[in-house]
């Protein structure tokens, strides 16, 4: 089964994303911030990370940088970065920091499925 780590400080968004991903046959894990996500990726790297930008403790951008620098992670997950209309300026920075794709919030099942297909996971 393909695995996805949903990283978002919003419980509601994690719940919605989990539901969509489970209908796409993903096994889903959740993290509330970048630090939790990094710890998870070091222990059990998922196939893909769905990554929020604004989070306490460690932001999405800080997570991307830490992921890039980590020598503990043996298999780097694909990263689909989530942003909003207001955060569109962040997309270039996220891609430069190692994100593979991005998705605009709020996303629906078809949009997320197509993004996962682009990174080779659908
Ligand atoms: Mg957030």
Give structural notes.
It is a single chain. With 122 residues, this protein is of the alpha/beta class. It has 5 helices and 5 strands, in the order E-H-E-H-E-H-E-H-E-H. The chain has helices spanning 11-23, 34-43, 60-69, 90-96, 109-118; strands at 2-7, 26-31, 48-51, 78-83, 101-104. The longest helix is centred in the first third of the chain and has 13 residues, at 11-23. Strand 4 (78-83), helix 4 (90-96) and strand 5 (101-104) form a beta-alpha-beta unit. The relative contact order is 0.18. The chain has a single domain, classed as Response regulator (Rossmann fold, 3-Layer(aba) Sandwich). Strands 2-1-3-4-5 form a 5-stranded parallel beta sheet, sandwiched between helices. Helix 2 packs parallel to helix 3. 41% of the residues lie in helices and 21% in strands. The structure holds magnesium ion (MG). Residues 8-10, 52, 54-55 line the site of magnesium ion (MG).
CATH architecture: 3-Layer(aba) Sandwich
In terms of per-residue confidence, which ranges show pLDDT below 50 for 5 or more consecutive residues? none
Q: What does the overall shape look like?
A: globular
Tell me the structural class.
alpha/beta
What would you give as the CATH superfamily? Response regulator
Number of domains: 1
**Hetero groups:** magnesium ion
List the helices and strands and how they pair.
Blueprint: E1 2-7, H1 11-23, E2 26-31, H2 34-43, E3 48-51, H3 60-69, E4 78-83, H4 90-96, E5 101-104, H5 109-118
Parallel strand pairs: 1-2, 1-3, 3-4, 4-5
Magnesium ion is lined by residues 8-10, 52, 54-55.
């Amino acid at each position: 089964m393909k695995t996805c780590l949903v990283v978002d400080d919003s419980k509601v968004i994690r719940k919605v994303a989990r539901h969509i991903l489970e209908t796409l046959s993903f096994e889903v894990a959740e993290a509330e911030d970048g630090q939790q996500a990094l710890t998870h990726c070091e222990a059990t790297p998922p196939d893909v990370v769905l990554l929020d930008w604004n989070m306490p403790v460690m932001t999405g951008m800080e997570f991307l940088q830490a992921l890039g620098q980590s020598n503990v992670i043996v298999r780097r997950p694909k990263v689909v970065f989530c942003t909003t209309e207001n955060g569109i300026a962040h997309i270039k920075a996220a891609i430069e920091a190692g994100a593979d794709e991005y998705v605009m919030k709020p996303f629906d099942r078809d949009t997320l499925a197509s993004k996962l297909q682009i990174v080779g996971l659908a």
